[in-house]
Amino acid sequence: MAGTDSTQIAVLGGPAVILVEPQLGENIGMAARAMLNCGLTELRLVKPRDGWPSDEAVAAASGADRILDAAKLYPTAEAAIGDLAYVYATSARPRGMVKRIVTPGLAAGRMRRNLGHGRRCGVMFGPERMGLVNDHIALADSVISVPLNPAFASLNLAQAVLVVGYEWFQSADPTPPQAVSGGGDTPAPKAELVNFFERLEAELDDCGFLRNAEARPSMVRNLRNLFQRAEATEQELRTMHGVVKCLVEKRKR
User: Fold this and answer.
1) Is the pLDDT at 64 greater than 80, yes or no?
2) What is the extent of the structural domain holding 130?
3) Cα 202 to the center of its chain, rounded Å
């Protein structure tokens, strides 16, 4: 899905994303792409195996160059988190340590609160092949674990960054959970909807469709509920009035 629009206001900031000993430049680039999709802009790299900068990372970033250009290099995970007040480690496996384990959604909310109070946060991601080692996880305050198929919980680096980043973005995104595309026509006022109901029902009475007096109330409610669920716009109701008119005129010829 491609939806880049440079005319829109960019959503930027958030916690630092710390990639510990990433192995491939392509994966760093794809992680940067995932970050920018979610408004995360601070990338920290700990000893990338194939060196830095990386042409492969730029190619895989698909335009998220600003993340790569501003990326900072660190010799150790300890150095990469040194200025942070709260750090999360990502891991899919129990490590035999007593650690607070949270979902990405809960972590996102807590990071927003911490950042709102001026406490900088970061999320550590481990190498592609095996993830973070115990010594790295021990540096974190909490562990983020993504609830997935228990028999196959296998995310690549960019996917893991995207899941955490998405939850971060969603934690403050004002987008309604449901919307109707295609223009600014709003749902019709209830008065217009009732007017249509009454016209439709009158015509159905006239043609004999609602002739069963006992069943009529239930049939009317069914029809009204059908159109209520449709959330018809004013233009759509005008169309339906036209449909009813056409059918009635044809029947009366």
Assistant:
1) yes
2) 16-170
3) 46
Claim to verify: residue 247 and residue 157 sit in the same structural domain? no
Give me the CATH number covering residue 203. 1.10.8
Tens digit of pLDDT for each residue in 138-147?
A: 999 999 999 8
Closest CA to 14 of 42, 37, 33: 42
- Tally of structural domains, the chain: 2
Sorting pLDDT into bands at 50, 70 and 90, what band is 176? low
Q: Is residue 178 part of a domain?
A: no
Q: Does 179 map to a domain? A: no
Mean pLDDT is lowest, of 38-42, 53-57, 187-191, for 187-191
Report pLDDT digits (tens) over 34-50: 999 999 999 999 999 99
What are the backbone dihedrals phi and psi of residue 217, each rounded to the nearest 5 degrees, phi first?
Answer: -60, -40
155 and 218 in a common domain: no
My answer on whether 70 and 148 are in the same domain is yes
Q: Does residue 184 sit within a domain? A: no
Q: Nearest-5° angle of CA 118, CA 121, CA 123?
A: 170
Residue given tokens 């392509």 in the structure block: 26
Q: Which helix (H) or strand (E) holds 44?
A: strand 43-46
Buried b (16+ CB within 10 A) or exposed e, 136-168: bbebbebbbbbeeeeeeeebebbebbbbbbbbb
- Beta-bridge mates of residue 18: 44, 124
Tokens of 16: 């630092």
Task: With a cut of 70, say whether residue 175 has pLDDT above it.
Answer: no
